[in-house]
Design a protein that fits this description.
The protein folds into two domains: 122 residues, Rossmann fold (3-Layer(aba) Sandwich); 100 residues, Winged helix-like DNA-binding domain superfamily/Winged helix DNA-binding domain (Arc Repressor Mutant, subunit A), CATH 1.10.10.10. It has eight helices and twelve strands.
């Protein structure tokens, strides 16, 4: 079965270049050139991956990314001439999975897309096979109903806050959350303290979960943006 991807890019030369490379690699590609048209296709059609430019007519790429992510878990790759760090952070916070700046290598774009597709397919397969009360990811099992965690077949004990943080991140794989978002979701808006406690709890999770906490394989730091549970 051919994998369908959607490219939303207003520069026709770049859009055609992207389509040519993906089609040479066996993908079925749909093209559109405005944000509004792209959103309609993204929400109503079944795509395995979506590539979005930021500077689009009508709805811009940031808004588009946000709307898609609220409705679908499909991988979203940003390809844009905007190379400021703040633009990358904003895109990741809105749910983008990757960010590539123009000019770019078409071969690298295809390679990154394939990597995200493999992770997405693996995640979807595991979710369909696992009971809804459990999360299974690379040797990690989180039993949400029993509030128990097993890592490499051994049970590991977590505090209430640690478990809540771990469950939340693992339930939103490959999404980047900044410290403020995590603090508000796990500790609550009216909680006393400050967002520095998020860093402390992430460190504790890594110490209990990771083979090498200094080189984490589960909870990754996205510098300048926040944390992401990698799948």
């Amino acid at each position: 079965m051919t994998t369908r991807i959607l490219i939303i890019e207003d520069e026709s030369t770049i859009a055609q270049l992207e389509r040519d490379y993906f089609e040479l690699n066996g993908f079925h590609v749909d093209l559109c050139h405005t944000g509004n048209e792209g959103l309609k296709l993204a929400l109503n059609e079944d795509y395995s991956l979506i590539i979005v430019d930021l500077q689009l007519p009508g709805m811009n790429g940031f808004e588009l990314c946000s709307h898609i992510r609220k409705n679908k878990e499909v991988p979203i790759l940003i390809v844009s001439a905007k190379d400021e760090e703040i633009d990358k952070i904003r895109a990741f916070n809105l749910g983008a999975d990757d960010y590539i700046t123009k000019p770019f290598s078409p071969s690298e774009l295809v390679a990154r897309a394939k990597a995200h597709l493999m992770r997405y397919i693996r995640l979807m397969g595991k979710q369909s096979q696992s009971p809804s009360s459990e999360i299974h990811i690379r040797g990690l099992v989180i039993d949400k109903s029993a509030r128990r965690v097993f890592i490499r077949n051994e049970e590991v004990t977590f505090t209430t806050r640690e478990f809540n943080l771990l469950e939340f991140l693992a339930s939103h794989p490959n999404r980047v959350f900044n410290k403020t978002e995590l603090f508000e979701r796990i500790w609550g808006m009216d909680s006393s303290g400050d967002i520095a406690t998020v860093t402390v709890h992430v460190r504790k999770l890594r110490e209990k979960m990771e083979v090498d906490p200094s080189n984490p394989q589960y909870i990754e730091t996205v510098w300048g943006a926040g944390y992401r549970f990698s799948v």
